[in-house]
Design goal:
heterodimer; A: alpha/beta; six-stranded parallel beta sheet; two-stranded antiparallel sheet; 12 helices; 10 strands; about 40% helix; globular; B: alpha/beta; 13 helices; about 15% strand; disordered C terminus
Chain lengths: ~280, ~300
């Protein structure tokens, strides 16, 4: 099978792309302070909050607009609770306002999104926000934004195991109150790290993972489409050339399959991690 | 944080020194063994295949253990392999049993002083006796442990966790790990995979994934060598520790000079087709900055 042309795919109508997007994706947006610094926005100011809100809305619009129906995004992870331990009340108040304040509710309503907070049982300060979002559920909705909040490293598994469920489907219903299609895509930022603060353990299917290097909410449409093309086509290697063809031509690819380059290895760039260059297959002959 | 060792010194350091920074538990999910055999000119259907494969595997695991890893979790057979039925399946089961728990394999484990376990057999009953043999024959304590896993599909792995929790009453991850594996196992913090960046419960036993630093090599089979492993461990131990010991406010002072780097549209995980296989899309990086970083010894 010949892969569809990438250029055509990049220009195709959103509805065509949506047909092959995952139903559920997990995203992790990091580097927001870095992104703010690049944009000349001072963190922890009102302007920063508004700028972040607009970025988040555009980011989720992009994902939902390309056919993803459930997006899971971490709003609080265990390291946050350590970093902000001395300001817990203020930090969680800021989170509650950001996720379920008046502006947020109006934004969600305008877009027709259903929004939930998952994990609030373990963070009492966020329970009101979670209830507010349930109360604000639109009459009709196609997209659900699931904010996840995780107070400790152990919390995700403690929640799963405490549910007392015997099957994954039962456990999902116990924790989330409904059936949810399993996630098959993970989009994150920076260093390739997988932790259960970011990927809810019950929702993991075969996760195709991607890490962008743009901090904050700066995923744009061409980048997302490249990811979706890879997800839907390039990674489906079993459907390409026949078995015998694939192995018959292996010799000329010897250089590529002998490379010492490893995805995930980086270098220091100032105080940050940044990937080292990765060679082109044709240069590895 | 500034690393204690520069990259060149680290590459040449004694194994014991590197071992001090290695993870206690690593998940080693190599793949592409057919590709590797084809490249090496080894016929998969020949008697030479399994000894060749086993020798590569032993070298690879020995390398990891010598570098301080105490527990290796290594998928032996996953869905696509175990989906075979009839005589093909029987042949596979026989090859796994002989290859990884036969007399020669057991002799290898004794020589290396490894303890070896097979997990996931609740979903592959034909291999229960294989697991029992490994348990009976490799009994040393306080030695490196190789945890082979078998998993017919990712669902089976999670089903085993939930079933065990229900049976044992485990309500925490620690309790569930002990109930499922019979002992406490440090959570894995390193995932060394092959090819496409994928996270899946047939490769990663759900309960054992800690804060997983992930790496994917592109050499098929058990072709990890020492320089590659050290490159990974240097990144794991030093280059990725960017958050600690650094004044947060000061981190952003020079960011304007890095603007181009943070505006790249390259995505780690997007690939290009290569003769019917997936291969990472090339990344040019930032040549000028890379040169500066190399000169500072900051490369990992």
């Amino acid at each position: 099978m010949q892969l569809p042309d990438l250029t055509t795919f990049l220009d195709s109508p959103r509805a065509d792309v949506a047909a092959l997007a995952p139903q559920t994706a997990i995203v992790s947006v990091n580097g927001t302070r870095r992104s703010a610094a690049l944009a000349g926005v001072t963190p922890h100011t009102d302007a920063y909050a508004e700028w972040s809100r607009q970025g988040m809305l555009a980011y989720m619009d992009l994902l939902f607009g390309h056919g993803i129906r459930n997006v899971f995004a971490a709003a609080v992870i265990a390291p946050n609770m350590i970093e902000f331990a001395h300001y817990r009340e203020r930090f969680l108040g800021w989170i509650a306002h950001g996720l379920a304040g008046q502006h947020a509710l109006a934004d969600y309503a305008r877009r027709g999104w259903r929004v939930r907070i998952s994990g609030a049982d373990a963070i009492p300060e966020l329970q009101n926000a979670a209830e507010t979002l349930v109360a604000a559920t639109p009459d009709r909705w196609e997209h659900t934004l699931w904010w996840t909040v995780t107070p400790s490293d152990d919390a995700p598994w403690d929640a799963v195991l405490s549910a007392g469920a015997r099957t994954r489907a039962e456990a999902i219903r116990a924790l989330y109150g409904e059936d949810i299609p399993l996630a098959t895509m993970f989009i994150s930022f920076g260093k390739p790290i997988v932790i259960y603060d970011l990927i809810p353990p019950l929702l993991v299917d075969r996760l195709q993972c991607y890490w962008i290097m743009r901090p904050g909410y700066r995923l744009d449409e061409p980048m997302l489409r490249h990811i979706l093309y890879d997800y839907a086509y390039t990674r489906k290697t079993g459907s390409g050339p026949s078995w015998s063809e694939r192995y018959a031509n292996l010799g000329i690819q010897r250089g590529a399959w002998s490379t010492q380059a490893v995805l995930g290895v980086g270098q220091r760039m100032g105080p940050f991690w940044y990937p080292v260059p990765f060679p082109q297959a044709e240069d590895l002959r | 944080m500034t690393s204690d060792l520069d990259f060149s010194t680290f590459l040449a350091a004694p194994d014991a020194e590197v071992a001090a920074i290695a993870p206690a538990t690593a998940i080693v999910a190599f793949g592409g063994t057919r590709r590797s055999a084809a490249l090496a000119g080894v016929d998969r259907m020949s008697p030479a295949y399994m000894p060749w494969l086993r020798a590569g595997m032993l070298n690879c695991f020995d390398l990891l253990f010598r570098h301080g890893v105490r527990h290796i979790i290594a998928p032996l057979a996953i869905g696509k392999h175990l989906a075979e039925a009839g005589s093909m399946r029987a042949q596979l089961i026989g090859a796994l049993d002989w290859g990884f728990a036969g007399a020669e394999a057991l002799a290898d484990y004794r020589r290396h002083e490894w303890r070896v376990r097979l997990i996931g057999t609740e979903s592959v009953p034909e291999l229960v006796s294989t697991g029992e043999r490994l348990r009976a024959e490799t009994t040393s304590s306080d030695v490196p442990t190789l945890w082979f896993s078998v998993c017919p599909d990712p669902e089976a792995s999670l089903a085993a966790v939930l079933h065990t929790a229900a049976q044992s009453g485990a309500r925490t991850r620690d309790q569930a790990v002990r109930a499922l594996y019979g002992e406490a196992i440090p959570l894995a913090t390193l995932l060394l995979g092959f090819g496409k960046p994928v996270f899946s419960y047939d490769l990663v036993p759900p309960l054992l994934a800690g804060r997983l630093q992930c790496y994917w090599m592109q050499r098929p089979g058990y072709a990890l060598d020492q320089p590659m492993l050290r490159m990974v461990l240097y990144d794991y131990a030093y280059t990725r520790r960017t958050g600690s010991g650094t004044d947060r406010g000061g981190r952003y002072a020079g960011i304007g000079a890095q603007r181009a780097a943070w505006e790249t549209d390259w995505v780690l995980g997007v690939g290009v087709p290569l003769g019917g296989f997936w291969f990472p899309a090339p990344f040019g990086g930032l040549v000028e900055q890379s040169v500066e970083l190399d000169e500072e010894g900051g490369r990992g």
